[in-house]
Amino acid sequence: MKAKALIADMAGTTIEDNGLVVQAFAMALDQLGIENNHPKRQASIDFIIETMGQSKIEVFTELFGAEEAHVANDAFETSYLECIERQGVEAIPGVEELFGALEEKGIALALTTGFSPQTRDALLEALGWSNRITFALSPSDAGRGRPHPDMILKASELLGISEMSSVAVAGDTASDMQAGVNAKAGWIVGVLTGTDDEPRLREAGASHIVDSIASIESVIAR
């Protein structure tokens, strides 16, 4: 059976992360006064890693409370954009060839992310994908972030697909897998180019594991 659509995560799945998320968060903590000697610093970083893939604003609300969440999120987004500008950003090797192969096979594509629309669009622009990716969604575009299924369901709707059993979801975090399970996706594919290892992805609901999304075609386009 061939999937009708692939809905894939961005950072760590289709885009190299190279530790930029954690680096940007550490920079944001500095701006918030939670520096290296602060008792909450390591616990905050550990929580960010644990919740990787989830809506950043929701994570910051959990960490700092509703009033400080937007300040923290703004600091993180600014820091992340600075990291991109300074260090650059790269696609996962083989992913652009995958995009072409999916198009040839008639498999629709959408991307999702826990980042804000501003940061998402900056990533797409930096990679030259702005005109290539028709649908890229952030939590604010759909309602709730991962592990809720909202972004996957909204992306499927935009792609004109109503049967979730024909949709493949791919990501590098447990949150991605949980969102796929909650959306009742037909394929829930964990990739090993990002945050979580195979046991954690399996535990979170992955139906398949691939080393890289570049090789997902063998799973969803048989």
Summarize the entry for a quick read.
The protein is of the alpha/beta class and 222 residues long.
What can you tell me about this protein's structure?
This protein has two domains: 5-16 and 90-220, 3-Layer(aba) Sandwich (Rossmann fold); 20-87. Helix 9 (174-183) links the parallel strand 4 (167-171) and strand 5. Helix 1 packs antiparallel against helix 2 (41-50), helix 3 (56-64) crosses helix 4 (66-87) and helix 4 packs parallel to helix 6 (117-127). The protein has a six-stranded parallel β-sheet, with helices on both faces. The chain is globular and about 55 Å long. By secondary structure, the chain is α/β, with parallel strands linked by helices. It contains eleven helices and six strands. 48% of the residues lie in helices and 11% in strands. Pfam families: HAD_2. One of its GO terms (cellular component) is cytosol. One of its GO terms (molecular function) is phosphoglycolate phosphatase activity.
How does the overall form come out from the CA principal axes?
globular
CATH hierarchy, class of the largest domain: Alpha Beta
The total number of structural domains is: 2
What radius of gyration results from the CA coordinates?
A: 17 Å
Strand content: 5-15%
CATH names the topology of the largest domain as Rossmann fold
Order of helices and strands: EHHHHHEHEHHEHEHEH
Number of separate helices: 11
If strands are numbered along the chain, what order do they take across the biggest sheet? 3-2-1-4-5-6
| Span between termini | 6 Å
> What is the residue-averaged pLDDT?
94
Based on secondary structure, the structural category is: alpha/beta
CATH superfamily of the largest domain: HAD superfamily/HAD-like
Largest sheet: 6 strands, parallel
Give the low-pLDDT segments. Answer: none
How many strands in all?
A: 6
CATH architecture of the largest domain: 3-Layer(aba) Sandwich
Percent helix among the residues? 40-55%
